[in-house]
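In this supplementary section we document a worked example of the pipeline. Step one takes a protein sequence of length 317 as its only input; no multiple sequence alignment statistics are reported here. Step two produces a three-dimensional model, which step three serialises into structure tokens for compact storage. The input and output of this example are shown verbatim.
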Amino acid sequence: MKKHDLEPVKDLKLGVSYSEMAEQMANSGGFSAKKFGIGVNILTEVMSNNECYTFLSLPAAPMSTGMRGIIKHLVQHKRVDAIVTTCGFLDHDVARTYTDYYKGDFMMDDAALGEEGINRLGSVLIPNESYGIIIEKEVMKLLEGMHKEGFRAIGTREFCAKLGEHISHAPKKEESVLYWAWKNNIPLFIPAPTDGSVGSQVWAFNQKHKDFTFDVIKDGKELSDIVFTAKMMGALMIGGGVSKHHTIWWSQFNGGLDYAVYITTAVEYDGSLSGAQTREAISWGKLKQEAKHITIEGDATVLLPFMIAAVEERLKK
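The serialised model returned by step three reads:
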């Protein structure tokens, strides 16, 4: 690059909207701030493109925090077309629809908390009655009803839809992501469905009803139908693990993603999937060579609310 082609670094200025600040950050040349701004630009393009099938992938932990409200917004307003996540996502959404989680601190006395029947998830406190007890009560009620209706081997998409329908009778239903996914017919896929409290209830139910089980091959059929019929594909991926990999794995079967925004706190030097930058996916065909993509290093519970606020301002214009 020749010197006369270079663009100067520009200082950020306050007193502007979320959208304008994101645009300043994209043009600032400033480290992660630039990535933040580029991510907002990509998400705006993805969510305004009706021909682009948009995946959201994320792990469970953010659902225990206020970021659940941002995920709910995306589903309620149909900003995404499908979710790929973990069993813990279901746990936290179900539990918080019927009970409350509480504010805590990373440095609390875990032994003392355990003696009081309080579980700590980072800086979030979850009493036993707000987790396993309420999940068992509501999920077992659902499973009994499904079995009587004739459900046997079920895909996780089908199960999540039934769970959302069950939640539609709860007083706090409109706070639930599962409820809005059911209402808006947005599929949820759980590649590892027994790795959590909700999945454990299905296992326990299976001990007395051997004909009732998960059939993840059904999910594969539905995902293949989605991928092979999509004109374009985009993904907002939060964190790594099985949900991120399942999203990019299936995307490769139709040439890879056209858009990708990835938010992670993991590093890439250990070769982990969670730390792998979006550019690495190009070598596997999981991301198109010409795709618009960015990896943003940081905590999604901080970054995503501001990113979506900026995107929404642009979409309303």
